[in-house]
Amino acid sequence: MEVESSQPRSTVFEPGLCKPVPTSATSTISNKSIYSEITPSHGKLGAEEQVLEEEDVAELVELKGTKEWVRRQHVEQEATLLARQQEPDNNTQEEVNASILHLQSLLQEQSTKLSVQELVLERLQCGDVLSKLLFDSPDSESTEEEPSEKDKEKIGEMVKQQNELVFELGKYHKDIQDLQENLDEVKKQSFEQQVRNRELMTRLQQRKEEQQQRSQEDSSDKVKMLESKLQQAMSNISSLQHIFQALIFGSQVHWAEDPDLQDLMISLGTPPDI
Amino acid sequence: MAAEEEREMSEVLPEEILKPFHKMPVRNAATVLLVGSYGTGTQQLAKAMVDVCTDTGLKLQVRTTTSLPLPEENADTRPRIDYIVFIIDLTNRLSFSTVQSAVQCVDVEYFLGRACFVVTNAKGTSDQCVEMEEVSRLADMYNTMYICGAIKEGDQDERTTLANRLLRLVEVSAGRKNVSPLLVDLTCRQLCFQEEQTEFYTV
């Protein structure tokens, strides 16, 4: 069995952010802005006092980290102890699963909140450093190097560009919002139109049906009337045919010898067919 | 198989079983135990983990062994083992049987987020003598995750990736992160998906 180990480099560890922060000019400025409430005086400090202050801060951070670590170990040990004391019960398995799901969702919420807070903090720190670089007057007691005019110009240009982009973005947002409102309005109108169309269609349908019904009724009455008239006319024609036949018989004319009279008698004998 | 396992279990004495809470933890320090037979690449993985760890500020100690239980000679001086990595080479049957016997010498507490299986040579199937199903069955039996990776000489990037991944898990076990290893282990499992699956099958 072999053993291997590693030697760590010295870094300042910020337990809140859970990542090592390399010591540099910008981060010391940002650390001052975070830890200003811990320092005893807010006025200008000498170089020695500044070094002491940084050492105090590092020590405090280390102590805080140790406290957090001890707390986590304590929580783990307690959880293990509690788990060993409890007897496993099959009925509570579903409850345990449900509580785990609930806790998982809570954890996700909290972790996203933390990430957002970290992002905001980083942004604030960057903004603070940027504003100090751009607007702060040079301090004779400060040990930092002043940024050159070129760098200041560059940063100024970048800020201008950012402003323009943000302004354009704002304009596009507004345009999109207006278009969205118009779209909503048009959708609403088309919906109302559809509703009206549907009402009209139903009314039209009803009227058509009524009309069809009425026309059916009328046609049946008409037909009956016409049929009766036709019956009457046919009976009239047949009675006239009989009368004419009787007249020819009664006149004692030899109708069989005359072909025309013969045809006439035969036609008067056939019933009318319409 | 169950009877054989019971017989093997009875051979392991209670004091030989590796436990996570029988020693005090050390701040900013972590100890990893790599369990793997000869030829599985434990030395290379240990070196890769140590190389990766130099930037994190953690005092990492990597111990390697070919079998469990650990010898009693160093029991007093040995620090608390924060994480155990069982290495299985799919082309080496002995590595799988070594791990199978080693897991029985480890306390169940380690399988709640303080241990994992590393499976190597999972890509080429031609010279594999251990089935992936056997490995997944073993992992399911111990409710522990397994990671597929490469440790051999030609796979520098993959080795570094694997070392990074294991280091993240070791940091959680050592208490360097704001979460406990049990929580990380639970969040790896999708309880919601299991519930939806049962609904699907009942329909």
TrEMBL record, chain B:
Keyword list (alphabetical) reads: Centromere, Chromosome, Nucleus
Under the cellular component aspect of Gene Ontology, which terms does the record hold?
chromosome, centromeric region; nucleus
- UniProt-listed InterPro entries: Centromere_Cenp-M, P-loop_NTPase
Which Pfam families would you find in this protein's record?
A: CENP-M (PF11111)
Query: Which Gene3D superfamilies does the entry link to?
Result: P-loop containing nucleotide triphosphate hydrolases
Q: What is the name of the gene encoding this protein?
A: CENPM
Name listed for the protein in its UniProt record: Centromere protein M
Does the keyword Nucleus feature in the UniProt annotation? yes
Q: What is its main location?
A: nucleus
Q: Where in the cell is it found?
A: Chromosome, Centromere; Nucleus
Organism of this sequence: Branchiostoma lanceolatum (Common lancelet)
Q: Which domain of life is it from?
A: Eukaryota
